[in-house]
Specification:
Blueprint lengths: L3 H6 L3 E8 L4 E9 L11 E8 L3 E2 L2 H9 L5 E4 L15 E9 L6 E10 L10 E7 L2 E5 L11 E3 L15 E4 L1 E3 L3 E7 L6 H26 L4
Parallel strand pairs: 1-12
Antiparallel strand pairs: 1-2, 2-7, 3-6, 3-9, 4-7, 5-6, 6-7, 8-13, 9-11, 10-11
Length: about 220
């Protein structure tokens, strides 16, 4: 049996994730509380690794703008994402999100990530599709050492340690206790019985708009 002191040091972390806002465009708020292991991770980089299902994605262009202003630190795998693909043609996305210290709690970290729901196939009865987000994995990177070997195990992460300019560092993972095993995102979907109506209205709107544009070009356009 492990000594009592080791058991105390290796208390699990707690992870909470919450979806903010409504509709297709949301913010994923992630909170991490390291518990007693927070003393080991002082001065280290802390991140969470999660796999987003095909029904939800991160916009790389929006993310680049946020990172340019130093508002978030995220690594996406793959880096190239088709933001127009529907859910049934998309693949899952691996996200490594760096979490920052929370000033209200010495062992707490938090970060927000903008996410977007994808369009789903029309449904027969329900007007909402369910997207399940699994609880993320807690990771810590300390280039100067200091983590207890009894508490942390090496993790395979192809990403540099945030804020450490000298070469790649080893990331470590820790078993954690999720506040909730999963989060649920409900995405609005169309009904199959409305398909004919949607097609007719779309064709009429397209024809009307095209006619207005053509009329404006003929009236105000300059032709040589």
């Amino acid at each position: 049996c492990a000594p009592l002191g080791v058991r105390a040091v290796c208390q699990g972390a707690t992870v909470t994730q919450e979806l903010l806002k409504e509709g297709f465009h949301r913010d994923l708020l992630v909170k991490v509380e390291l518990g007693a292991v927070g003393e080991d991770a002082e001065g280290c980089a802390v991140a969470v690794r999660t796999r987003l299902p095909p029904g939800i994605y991160v916009d790389p262009y929006e993310l680049a703008s946020l990172q340019q202003h130093n508002l978030t630190k995220v690594v996406l795998i793959p880096e190239v994402i088709d933001v127009e693909a529907p859910e049934y043609l998309a693949t899952e996305l691996l996200v490594l999100l760096h979490v920052e210290p929370d000033s209200r709690c010495s062992r707490c970290f938090r970060a927000a990530l903008p996410v977007h729901g994808r369009y789903h196939r029309p449904a027969a009865e329900t007007e909402e599709a369910v997207v399940v987000l699994r609880s993320p994995e807690v990771l810590v990177c300390c280039c100067e050492g200091g983590l207890s070997a009894e508490c942390w195990v090496p993790a395979e992460v192809e990403a540099p340690c945030s804020g450490k300019p000298t070469g790649p560092c080893q990331w470590y993972s820790k078993k954690h206790k999720p506040a909730h095993e999963e989060s649920i995102l409900q995405v609005p979907v169309g009904l199959r019985q409305h398909s004919s109506l949607v097609c007719v209205v779309t064709l009429l709107a397209t024809g009307l708009c095209s006619s207005l544009i053509l009329a404006a070009v003929c009236k105000y356009g300059h032709f040589s």
